[in-house]
């Protein structure tokens, strides 16, 4: 007789943690559907979430710890026990720490796929300041900038807004369940929609205005908006007078950006510049959510985040319903935050000072973090947590990989990658590869043997989200994500990986909790809950209260919104937003313009893939079998390329091949290349490494200082120059 059972669990194949019902037959998961009782996703799941069962039992999943036995990258592995693997890794880390100092260990970060405070806690206690990776470009720079500007990270209340600015964000592909549904709900309620995107994305169908901006020029348009808003007195006068500093300097700075100049820079018309500025400033409440299209533009990314936060403030949209929510609503702020679990106090000033890259990019290193923390200390913890170090204080990849390759300023000899596939995620992929190959010890924790994991000494098998539990805490709500089944084979949750290493390296006193659920109980204790009671109540929701800055002020040095940032100024960064031309050489050197006539954007999200994942999942791969590069039909025709042809894409950094897709949704002067492509069906061993260099967009992306933002060192994944030719 068949036994059937259904368990509540969650999907973590991207950020929102949608509720799942996992159906079992004879103890095996056979089917998944959305959990209609989940308080946030309410039964919806996306095309990727529907593949959870394929992911859970995939034959290429890592099920046991592996130890390299042949040459690095030769594809020869031995299955070992967790104890043996952890013992040996700990022993080698201890030896390298004694020989070179704790700073010899680095970490590479991907996006937030799992809880990351245990990693930070481990690094702080180990004594290394060198965690680096995608945090320099994804969301975290914005978070750091918003702390410096108004003392916290704002969450856009899109659903209740009257005007939504969709700027560099394609939620229809990147956040189909929460973000896109919120936009559609706002539209349904009559909100005006402005889309600023070089491509005619699905969101444009909902839009009142679409600005097909030239990639990388967004700061110029934002400065143009600020100028229109100030000149035409469309700003919130009371708020500006009472709650901001630096308005006069801002007014003078933006005077240099009249609509006709902005139009020239951005490939828009002066009318578009003024119309969109007026629509945004006069329709309240307005929400201007974060979008990766801004953070991914390298040299301009940081100042664009600054300009956006200024626009939100001067239009009076901070901390109002339908605008930009600030702070933790009662009682959520009482829950112990990631910032406290990180144990940042454990890393000494001497070790902090060794953080690689911080001298060049102090705002995103400990100097900036410490200033943000100090400014935040004027606010009660339950209202505004200090910035998490893991999101606002990172070493810089160029400096860290440089230290691996050259031994300067000191040798970096060991690395851990957990929930990250650095050769595909980080720019200048060939240098990343060289650096990983040069390590004395490389440790990876993942679901699959990725091209990066193929270079490791030890690989640890991670439990899928349905095989573990999680506490999903964001300003607004806290939801318990229950485990659906015990981990299969010898997969373990990431807490066990970190704790396993920690207790072997003398940190046992700081890891009193044997399971991650015990940590969740500890976190929830201040609100009188346990993880299990939270599962039963389906979540804890905050009681939103508008404009709490009137009670607490802002967590900045002045206590006000800093249109001119004192923290930026103190660290030698531009305190007022400025626009920088990404390719001044194109004007100076006409030969460059001939060599690279097209503008390249990379990594526009597409379903059902998530970064470098799903390439081995048959239904996903059948829907997108090959890496695609999108060209305008007129451009392709001139190049002699048709739909489905293989094309070569070349930038000053490198060259790859992808298959042509034709669409008039893209500007004729632009090229859109998918990121994250490798071929799990190909040979593993180096130099093939699953074809990791063939179609990997990060072979095209640079990490040089000239292309990175001077404040944070954010590197570009868009606004690049390229040429495209038939293969
Ligand atoms: N399917 C899928 N979903 C994902 C992910 C995934 O890999 N796949 N990744 C997740 C992660 S980590 C992130 S960060 C989010 C990001 O998700 P989004 O914020 O939606 O970011 P992108 O899709 O990278 O880019 C958004 C838009 O920016 C536009 N753009 C490119 N360059 C510029 C520019 O210079 N200026 C302007 N104004 N627009 C530009 C692109 O055309 C694109 O439509 O997605 C998350 N969701
Ligand atoms: N060219 C270009 N490059 C980009 C981007 C772009 O737009 N263009 N986007 C950038 C952005 S925004 C980001 S955030 C990064 C993302 O970069 P990453 O987050 O590094 O994404 P992946 O490279 O897919 O690596 C994630 C790996 O973690 C594994 N994994 C997933 N969940 C878990 C887990 O819970 N535990 C463990 N141990 N492993 C897990 C997956 O199997 C996968 O191999 O990429 C960046 N790279
Ligand atoms: S949006 Fe899709 S992939 Fe992301 S958590 Fe929800 S169901 Fe999973
Ligand atoms: Mo990201």
Summarize the structure.
Keywords: Iron, Iron-sulfur, Metal-binding. This protein is of the alpha/beta class.
What would the CATH topology of the largest domain be?
Rossmann fold
Binned strand content: 15-25%
State the distance separating the first and last CA atoms: 57 Å
Helix count equals 29
CATH architectural arrangement of the largest domain: 3-Layer(aba) Sandwich
The residue fraction in helices comes out at 25-40%
Overall description:
This protein has 3 domains: 226 residues, Rossmann fold (3-Layer(aba) Sandwich), CATH 3.40.50.740; 171 residues, Dimethylsulfoxide Reductase, domain 2 (3-Layer(aba) Sandwich); 143 residues, Barwin-like endoglucanases, CATH 2.40.40.20. A 7-stranded mixed beta sheet has the order 5-4-17-16-15-6-7, covered by helices on one side. The protein has a 6-stranded mixed beta barrel with strand order 22-26-23-25-24-27. A 4-stranded parallel beta sheet has the order 11-10-9-13, sandwiched between helices. The chain is α/β, with parallel strands linked by helices and 727 residues long. Helix 3 runs parallel beside helix 21 and helix 18 packs across helix 20. The mean pLDDT is 97. 32% of the residues lie in helices and 16% in strands. A hairpin with a 2-residue loop joins strand 18 and strand 19. The protein is built from 29 helices and 27 strands. Iron/sulfur cluster (SF4) binds next to loops. It holds the Pfam family Molybdop_Fe4S4. This is Molybdopterin-dependent oxidoreductase. InterPro entries: Asp_de-COase-like_dom_sf, MopB_CT_Acetylene-hydratase, MoPterin_dinucl-bd_dom, Mopterin_OxRdtase, Mopterin_OxRdtase_4Fe-4S_dom, Prok_Mopterin_Oxidored.
